[in-house]
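Chapter review: from sequence to fold.
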Amino acid sequence: LQTVNGQPTVFYSDFNVLNSDVRGRLSVQTSADDDYVGFVLGFNPGDTASAVADFLLVDWKQITQSYNFSGGTADLTPGSTAAAGLAVSRVSGVPTADELWGHTSFGETGDAGGLTELARGATLGQTGWQDFVEYSFRFVFRQDSLQVFVDDLLQLSVSGSFSDGRLGF
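The C-alpha cell string follows.
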C-alpha cells in the first residue's frame, strides 16, 4: 500500500524474476489522484542512482497530463507530457523526473539517463486505469522477451536482451 503522492519510488522484491511467470493484483483505492502506477523488472538495488542502470518499466497513467518538474536535476529538462494508458519502457541510467513522466530521453547536459518507450498496451495503450478497480497482472519475463497480461489479456509483448533483476512496484 502506497499512500504518499511523490516522486517515483520503488518497493522491490527480495528475489530475481528473469525466467519467471509472476502474477499479482493492483488497484488504486482513491479518486484523488490520476498519476502513474506500475512495475519494474530487471531492477537491482541501487539502480535509482546508478549511471549504468538498465531495467524495464511497465507503467499505467490514468489521464494524459503535461507537467514541468522543477528543482534539482529537473531544471535541466523542459517538461513533458504523460500519455494516458499502459506502456513498457526501457530505463537507462538515472532519468530526470521529466524524462520519467514523458517516457523520453532529452540528452541534456548533466542528464545521466532516460527512457525509451518500447510498446503501448494492445487495448489499454491509450486507456487509463479506473479508480477502485482491481486488475490482475501477469509478467512472463525471459532474457529475450517480456509479456504482460492484464486481466488475462496480452497487453504488452516486447523482444530484446534483458538482464536479471528484481520485480518492483
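Two observations follow directly from the output. The mean pLDDT is 91. The first strand starts at residue 12 and ends at 16.
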